[in-house]
Amino acid sequence: MEIATQTVQIGLEWDTRTGAVTVPIYQTATFRHPGLGRSTGFDYSRSGNPTRQALEDGIARLEGGARGFAYSSGMAAIANLLLLFKRGDHLVVTEDLYGGTYRLFEKIFNQYDLSFTYVDTSNVEEVRRAIRPETRAVFVESLTNPLLKVADITALSGLCREKGLLCIVDNTFLTPYLLRPFDYGADITVYSATKYLAGHNDTVAGLVAVKDPLLAETVYFHQNSVGAVLGPQDAWLTIRGMKTLSVRLDRQQENALAIARWLQNHSHVAKVHYPGLESHPHHAILNRQARGFGAMISFEVVGPSLVEQLLMRTRLISFAESLGGVETLITFPEIQTHADIQPEIRQRLGINNVLLRLSVGIENLQDLINDLEQAFRS
Predict the structure, then answer these.
(1) pTM of the predicted protein model
(2) Residue 119: what pLDDT?
């Protein structure tokens, strides 16, 4: 069954008594036991809630994994995954990753003697050279944030199998609709479901899928023990958003490619980062392993003065953090999403004072281009 169909069907089977076509919101903290030593399968909503379970089963099916898990945010999801590791363990990580993930690694889990080496994970040999005897996992973004480099999941997962490491893929920018990392050998996928999966900028959520059933049991133990779970209302909103994932992303990608080509030919734009452009250095890799290129664009303007001009003078496009919703958003990674990364590292990576990130929505294409054009002219 195609992913587009599977997303629409999430939760459809839950209410067999009434035949409701949307899963109910089970807004309850606890569940009545049918008898001593007996359970309905639900006892306390931290351990399991039917609305959340429908979402967790849904992401597991979409990924082709053994089990799914829903958390209160994408960062909560990543933090729970780090509980798989112990003091002294080491991870190899995408270097130009989301600044919040970097902050979590360097300012929180570093205190507990986990260590991280940041490399260009689009270069498999760099990853190989960074592996140490104490390395336990490779953590990659399938499309990096914000420079949109592409991880070759097949090559990286093969390296992880060779070295006995976990391959963890943050697939937020692509979603299982465009890329299923398990098909290419990954072990765990993680999402800020706030973004494309929920898709409407109206909820905060995180999702994880795990391929191996035994590993999934450990992840569940941590989820239940820590308790950073997604509430039923937000689980329902995420399910509702996922039902339209395919139609939203199809439109968003169509808009993104056209805008990237338009930006590429604009006199005030020095460089465009979008893997759907054939000039992108990793276009062929993503074309081989995904069914699309996503709807994120980063671009560099010709001078710093244009940054504030674009941020403040677009009328349709909102200057806001986050991404993946139906509305088009623009942000400035250097001082917004990636401010926690040291300035010298940002400059080396290319997260500089002329780089803007555009999350393309579903609006009319010409309206979006007109808005950018008038902001450039202002």
Answers:
(1) 0.95
(2) 95
Name, in order, each residue with C-beta under 8 angstroms of 197's C-beta and a sequence gap of 6 or more. Answer: 59, 175, 191, 205, 207, 238, 241, 242, 245, 324
The answer to whether residues 50 and 43 touch, using CB atoms and an 8 Å cutoff, is: no
- Which of 264, 220, 222 has the alpha carbon at shortest distance from 67? 220
Dump pLDDT digits (tens) for 218-261.
Answer: 999 999 999 999 999 999 999 999 999 999 999 999 999 999 99
Specify the domain boundaries for CATH 3.40.640.10 within the chain. Answer: 3-242
* Continuous segment of H or E residues that includes residue 169: strand 166-170
Q: How many CA atoms lie within 13 A of 156 on its CB side?
A: 34
**What residues act catalytically?**
46, 98, 170, 195
Q: Where in the chain is the domain with CATH 3.90.1150.10?
A: 245-377
**pLDDT tens, 278-312?**
999 999 999 999 999 999 999 999 999 999 999 99
CATH number for 3-242 (one of 3.40.640.10, 3.55.40.20, 1.10.530.10, 3.50.50.60): it is 3.40.640.10
User: Residue 364's closest CA among 208, 262, 258?
Assistant: 258
Cα 241 to Cα 249: distance, rounded to the nearest angstrom: 12
CATH code for the part of the protein at 245-377: 3.90.1150.10
| Distances from the Cα of 337 to the Cα of 300, 333, 357, angstroms | 16, 5, 10
